[in-house]
Amino acid sequence: MTVQIDHALEEIRRFRPSPEFAAQSVADPALYEAAKADRLAFWADQARELLTWHKPFTRTLDWSNPPFAKWFDDGELNVAVNCLDRHVEAGLGDRVAIHFEGEPGDSRDITYAELTDEVKRAANVLEGLGVGEGDRVAIYLPMIPEAVISMLAVARIGAIHSVVFGGFSSDSLASRIDDAEAKLVITADGGYRKGRVFPLKPTVDEAIAKTAGSVENVLVVRRAENDVALEPGRDQWWHETVGTAPAEHEATAFNAEHPLFILYTSGTTGKPKGVVHSSGGYLTQTAFTHKYVFDLHPETDVYWCTADVGWVTGHSYVVYGPLANGATQVLYEGTPDTPHPGRWWEIVEKYKVSILYTAPTAIRSFMKLGRQIPHEFNLRSLRLLGSVGEPINPEAWIWYRHVIGGGSIPVVDTWWQTETGAIMISALPGITDLKPGSAQVPIPGISIDILSDDGTPVEGESGGLLVVSEPWPSMLRGIWGDPERFKETYWEKFGDKYFAGDGARHDEDGDIWLLGRVDDVMNVSGHRLSTAEIESSLVAHPWTAEAAVVGASDETTGQAVVAFVILKASQVSHATDPADASEELRKHVAMQIGAIARPRQVFIVNELPKTRSGKIMRRLLRDLAEGRQIGDTTTLADTSIMQIISEQVK
Ligand code: WTA
């Protein structure tokens, strides 16, 4: 394979941090220097500074048996104590940990003291149900405080949680319960989504009926008050058990390498992988990145990460990072457009959110609706914006900064993965000159390389494969029950360097640009083209709201670029002829990137197929572009979408 990626999308704007921001920033260039001088000593310092250890560690990294790393492995700590008790002991018990906002408009503020008590109660109940060190607990809940409480209660007693996103089906839940042999399931009667109650407990019942029988108990939070059946002897209400349990609970310490959680993520094969994370290293890096990437001032900031706890972003940047740092945060149950399209901005105004962390897909859907919606609200409390999940195209970056951020506040684009556990590549606001569209630089203490297929470093602007070349504290420790798959997937390709599965390039300043998954990189007439780059170009066109690009097999060129584009509402109301729009966009891409990138086809559609977490399922679009039968659509948020798109493409 020749790794040479054509790119032409020039984004020349740079944004220097304002002097005011730089002056108050928690990050200091000395962090980079310290990490460069002695990487391991740097991480050991962070672990000591940011966390409280029951038993201090003396060893930082054991990499004697790659790819199985051990960090701080003679140390002991309790993760929940680090997120809760120690803040209360430090006199911060009255600080709000969570401003909870339910979709129907109910709200509840929970202080650190209250959250600590709730977690202790839940820990007592779990132990009463016979859950102990190393046991697995499946959590299938809406975005309500009990999700956070459950995770921390499991962590407190040294059990291992496996959070399953509430939008997953009973089959997916059953396979995850079976794979981890979960003993307990924590769920709710239901939750609120898009103005309706969505039942969860019935799905749990269905799922358990399909499992091999590991589940002994089910704990049910009453949230939506929909009718549910409790199976005597197996199921119990949360409010009747946790609600009445004592709030005294002595926490014991666990080894730093003790597993904290399993989180399933889809791989290249059909079977989801159970990514395993451990305690000390994971908490060190989530706390470190949460503090420095988000410039956290815990006394004054109100932080809001919009991710669901069912995904890794919710684990690291709703639960562990922010709580380890004693942050005050917003937790919102529902969807961005319920009961009105300005709901998020209303929440920002209500709680005076100062740090907002969300995904490009959300930003682009707000762009589609137009700036007048956010402009109805007072967003002046915002002082920092973050992005994660996919490359953020410069146009969305600029819109985010201007329309949401008022034009002058930093936007950090953070690259990482379920497997990396925490942010790996990001600007540090206050230090880094920001460059829209680029994730920019490895965080201090992280070593990133871009390699060609044969493992040689790719310098300059031709692209290659992103690897993490040194072990890092929050790295995955394996795939649950499948060490071979762990080695094969991530380590076989480059020996002891971690293969991330993403394409990337360095620009002339050495900044990193992510080019999408390598499986989404196309080869057109021997030229490698990135789907992300063409999408970015399409989205930069004033008519485009959203775009997805796939490489479809083509007799003459090997692969051809096929694009699916949603036009902006204004364009649709001008009744632009789809054929004209498609021709205009093909020309636009050819002009911006080069003739080689001109899409063979641009289909104008109303919707794109997305998973429940908002990722576009390009595989399905590729099926369509290649005239194949559409593959498995069960992970789509709306399974009827492909039918509609097929009609439009005909
Ligand atoms: C992609 C989400 C470009 C990437 C935290 C990665 C990104 C995959 C970015 C992991 C970013 C995530 N720029 N691409 N800032 N952040 N990705 O496991 O392809 O859900 O491999 O973790 O998302 O997705 P995951």
UniProtKB/TrEMBL annotation:
Query: Under which EC number(s) is this enzyme classified?
Result: 6.2.1.1
Q: Where does the AMP-dependent synthetase/ligase domain start and stop, copy by copy?
A: 91-480
Q: Which residues does the UniProt record annotate as the domain AMP-binding enzyme C-terminal?
A: 533-615
> Among its keywords, does the record have Metal-binding?
yes
Identify residues that carry N6-acetyllysine. Answer: 615
Q: Which residues form the signal peptide?
A: none
What Pfam family is a match for this entry?
ACAS_N
Listed PROSITE patterns: AMP_BINDING
Alphabetized, the UniProt keywords read: Acetylation, ATP-binding, Ligase, Magnesium, Metal-binding, Nucleotide-binding
This protein's cofactor list reads: Mg(2+)
Sequence ranges assigned to domain Acetyl-coenzyme A synthetase N-terminal in this UniProt record: 30-83
Reaction(s) catalysed by this chain's protein:
acetate + ATP + CoA = acetyl-CoA + AMP + diphosphate
Q: How is it modified after translation?
A: Acetylated. Deacetylation by the SIR2-homolog deacetylase activates the enzyme.
Protein residues bound to CoA: 193-196, 313, 525
Q: Which family does it belong to?
A: Belongs to the ATP-dependent AMP-binding enzyme family.
UniProt function note: Catalyzes the conversion of acetate into acetyl-CoA (AcCoA), an essential intermediate at the junction of anabolic and catabolic pathways. AcsA undergoes a two-step reaction. In the first half reaction, AcsA combines acetate with ATP to form acetyl-adenylate (AcAMP) intermediate. In the second half reaction, it can then transfer the acetyl group from AcAMP to the sulfhydryl group of CoA, forming the product AcCoA.
Protein name, per record: Acetyl-coenzyme A synthetase
Organism of origin = Agromyces humatus
Ranked from the top, the taxonomy reads: Bacteria, Bacillati, Actinomycetota, Actinomycetes, Micrococcales
